Amino acid sequence: MPNKITLIPGDGIGPEVVYATKDIIDKSGAEIEWEILNAGICVMDEYNTPLPDKVIDSIKKNKVALKGPITTPVGTGFRSVNVALRQKLNLYANIRPIKSYEGINTLHKNVDFVIVRENTEGLYAGIEHRVGDEACESIKIITKKASDRIAKFAFELAKKENRKKVTATHKANIMKLSDGLFLKCAKDVAKDYEIDFEDVIVDAMSMKLVMNPQNYDVVVAPNLYGDVLSDMSAGLIGGLGMAPGANIGDNIAVFEPVHGSAPDIAGKNLANPISCILTGVMMLKYIGENDAALKIESALEKVFKQKDKLTKDLVGGLLGTKEFAQTVIEHM
Ligand code: NAI
Asked: Which of 140, 172, 304, 314 would give a disulfide with 183, using CB separation of 3.0 to 4.6 Å?
């Protein structure tokens, strides 16, 4: 029986990178039946909402989705579909591996760590209100339940992937109650594992990651810090075109690259599909299609060593999105 998977192309560069990934997965030997549904601004007219119930229902039924980025209006308009999906499906762990590959021009070599970001609360709870005409308040929610859960997830991931250290990052020197609780939970959970643990204040963490990313293995963070550190870390390994991701809950998962819909390059065959392809590889491993995952990964590694076969955002790259995907298929 093929695995049934919900495919959400998204908007901006979403469809370009998602269909490039789908083509590669379809030729990898993985047995997948795709259920294609969309969300975001492109469905607003038809459904009067950017997140139709049928999308949520499809993911709940199939338990796994591959999703492209979806544009969120800045300052006004509907709330982020991405955040809403994570909250509605309780996809509490956002996993963002940061890995440098041979052949790709990067700021550092031998980088291999994973950001584990709390995905349901913090400042992304979206609880904001006006205070009179000249002030606004945004409420940051940190709970013991979510902090314990994400810390445990980070240690379990470290155990499964044979990683040596978990680093919790926070700003508990200033937000003594909220980040203080996050840190206390991480410290308490650490006692149950024989894995090294340390905590680093998030501003110092940013500097340390830029200077010595090889010192890190698993980085666990509240929602906002995890988001900011992931884009920054993508910059260490070739940019947002190189950073895959997964949103994981209990028995349900939505796989999506770290990057957004990149309206500046959308529709121009310029998007780098590698983050989405690597996201697809994560998904294949999650559903047990290990042979297909390894086949794609090894094809990618062969292509990475031929600089002119990369997309133009990477040093030396000459190819468009479609031509890159075709090259990966030829190397499989
Ligand atoms: P972005 O990640 O879309 O783009 C930032 C910069 O990186 C741009 O210069 C873009 O061209 C480049 N870039 C991103 N992905 C690339 C790729 N695959 N290949 C080559 N270059 C790439 O971030 P931005 O511009 O801040 O956000 C655009 C929209 O995306 C916003 O509406 C935002 O809310 C949304 N967004 C959606 C996400 C999601 O669906 N999960 C995540 C992040 C942002």
From this structure: 172
Sketch the domain layout of the chain as residue ranges.
1-103+238-332, 107-111+120-236
Q: Does domain 1-103+238-332 have CATH number 3.10.180.10?
A: no
Which is the closest atom of ligand 1 to the Cα of 81?
Answer: 40
Q: Which residues line ligand 1 (CB under 6 A)?
A: 13, 17, 69-72, 82, 240-241, 256, 259-265, 271-272, 275, 313
Radius of gyration of the CA atoms of the chain, in A: 20
Tell me, yes or no, if 171 is annotated catalytic. Answer: yes
Rounded Cα gap, residues 267 and 126, in angstroms: 31
Whether the model clears a pTM of 0.90, i.e. scores above it, the answer is: yes
CATH of 107-111+120-236, one of 1.10.1760, 3.40.50, 1.10.10, 2.60.40: 3.40.50
DSSP string, 17-35: HHHHHHHHHHTTT--EEEE
Per-residue pLDDT of the chain (332 residues; tens, 9 = 90+): 889 999 999 999 999 999 999 999 999 999 999 999 999 888 988 998 889 999 999 999 999 999 999 998 777 777 788 888 988 999 999 999 999 999 999 999 999 999 999 999 999 888 999 999 999 999 999 999 999 999 999 999 999 999 999 999 999 999 999 999 999 999 999 999 999 999 999 999 999 999 999 999 999 999 999 999 999 999 999 999 999 999 999 999 999 999 999 999 999 999 999 999 999 999 999 999 999 999 999 999 999 999 899 999 999 999 999 999 999 999 99
